[in-house]
Write a structure and sequence with these properties.
6-stranded mixed beta sheet, alpha/beta, Rossmann fold, 4 helices
Length: about 160
């Protein structure tokens, strides 16, 4: 039986400029550095996704681009999803269910509190999801449509202190 692996990633530290809309905020220097370091961590550990899905918000797209750069993932194949910007965890589920079943490993980049609540819903485990943190969740089935509450196992929680 094939397993599916979902890496839930919170965007890197964002920049707060006066008058800038939340959706348009980029990364600050620390966020830029952390997202590149996270990508290097994935590359060094041979964690290469079959698919990267990112919230369409600028800071999340920039985080995904930096990770993609380090793991050799084509920028043009990053799937940008407006629906997971400021989303409740349940809004992530249709995006996950829509992944092609030939894809076994997915990075999904989003925002808090949605990503924290998604990890909790899928695994029953609470993690403190600061910027640039990653939850690795495995599922023991072959179809993404089977992802539901309490069907995943939290395999690893990666914080910036690791990379």
């Amino acid at each position: 039986m094939n397993t599916k692996t979902l890496y839930i990633i919170r965007h890197a530290k964002s920049d707060w400029k006066a008058g800038e809309k939340d959706f348009d905020r980029g990364l600050n220097n620390r966020g830029e550095r952390q997202s590149l370091e996270l990508g290097a961590y994935f590359s060094k550990n041979n964690i290469i996704p079959d698919l990267i899905i990112s919230s369409a918000a600028r800071r999340t797209v920039l985080t995904s681009l930096n990770i993609a750069d380090r793991v050799g993932y084509p920028f043009t194949k990053i799937q940008k999803e407006q629906s997971i910007y400021e989303a409740h965890y349940e809004q992530y589920l249709p995006v996950i269910w829509g992944v092609d079943n030939n894809v076994n490993s997915v990075f999904i980049l989003g925002h808090n509190p949605g990503v924290s609540n998604l990890v909790y819903a899928l695994t029953g485990e609470y993690v403190e999801f600061k910027t640039s943190c990653v939850a690795k969740i495995s599922f023991k089935f072959e179809k993404w449509e089977e992802v539901q509450s309490s069907t995943g196992k939290l395999e690893q929680f990666i914080t910036p202190s690791i990379f």
